[in-house]
Amino acid sequence: MGELHERLPETAAYMHGPPPRKVVAARAKPLEGPPSVTDTPEPAKPHFRSDVTVELVKSDARDADVLFAARVSTAGEQSLEEVTKDPERSKGLINYLMRDRHGSPFEHNSMTFFVSAPIFVFREFMRHRVGWSYNEESGRYRELEPVFYVPGTSRKLVQQGRPGKYEFVQGTEEQYDVTTRAMEESYRASYEAYQEMLAKGVAREVARAVLPVGLFSSMYATCNARSLMHFLGLRTQHELAKVPSFPQREIEMVGEQMETHWQQLMPLTHAAFNKNGRVAP
Ligand SMILES: Cc1cc2nc3c(=O)[nH]c(=O)nc-3n(C[C@H](O)[C@H](O)[C@H](O)COP(=O)(O)OP(=O)(O)OC[C@H]3O[C@@H](n4cnc5c(N)ncnc54)[C@H](O)[C@@H]3O)c2cc1C
């Protein structure tokens, strides 16, 4: 975790790390007033989550940006107002670009998301190399919060069928119970080991080795509509998909929230994506 920050020069700013955008852990209440010599900081209590956070923190993304880029060579049509002036024509052009896979006009926009999700989701996410920029919180420069993933009851637990052709079905009550208990026990034990090492003065970058991939991390991820569509085509399951994909449910949960934000920003582009089988142009 935090590999991007690790490659940055260790300036004073990065030694302390940028402040986390959002406190995702339920931390112990801070002590009131100045600490006395007998006060010892309370260890943070593990916190378990079955959801993920996706926030759109900034964006410059409109359907008009696609038209603007596509019409650059057409005299007199370089206006961002075009989309409202003739919506049917705009819709038609966006659909044509999507259908014939003229992809570059979909790159002239930008969306930055704050994502908080388990590390195993981030491992999958960062395989998406093209058209994405990432900055993840550092486990070297600050103590990691004890926030861990435990699947909710709607998360199908049992895989049936052979590799490449399988489906997930609901677990029994017993399977949910054992999953919850085993995960929580294991998370508590690993976080205690982490705290023990930190208390003895072991560096954060060494102690973090005991923490599991179910630990939550956070990042900013910036993309454009084209790279987001490629991601959504691979990381969501959808009845309109021409090429079905079978992503892990937890990264799909991130993808679904990103799609909701994007759909509001670029409704015509989103509709054309669906109409053309959810294949990125
Ligand atoms: C359901 C599922 C299961 C998966 N299972 C595994 C697994 O078991 N093990 C595993 O390692 N990964 C796995 N992956 C990850 C997968 O192999 C891709 O790394 C990931 O989906 C990112 O896709 P991408 O390379 O197309 O995206 P990006 O890296 O964003 O690339 C976008 C596009 O750019 C082009 N491109 C990028 N880099 C190159 C390059 N070096 N050479 C040529 N063209 C390039 C390609 O056209 C590519 O589609 C899985 C992905 C999915 C969706």
From TrEMBL:
Catalytic reaction equation(s): dUMP + (6R)-5,10-methylene-5,6,7,8-tetrahydrofolate + NADPH + H(+) = dTMP + (6S)-5,6,7,8-tetrahydrofolate + NADP(+)
Active site: R235 (involved in ionization of n3 of dump, leading to its activation)
EC number: 2.1.1.148
Stretches for region Disordered: 1-47
Cofactor requirements of the protein: FAD
Binding site for FAD: S104, R127, H128, R129, E136, N224, A225, R226, H230
InterPro entries documented for this protein: Thymidylate_synthase_ThyX, Thymidylate_synthase_ThyX_sf
Keywords tagged on the record: FAD, Flavoprotein, Methyltransferase, NADP, Nucleotide biosynthesis, Transferase
Short name of one Pfam family: Thy1
Enzyme class (EC, first level): transferase
Signal peptide: none
Family stated for the protein in its record: Belongs to the thymidylate synthase ThyX family.
Role, per record: Catalyzes the reductive methylation of 2'-deoxyuridine-5'-monophosphate (dUMP) to 2'-deoxythymidine-5'-monophosphate (dTMP) while utilizing 5,10-methylenetetrahydrofolate (mTHF) as the methyl donor, and NADPH and FADH(2) as the reductant.
Name of the featured protein: Flavin-dependent thymidylate synthase
Organism: Streptomyces badius
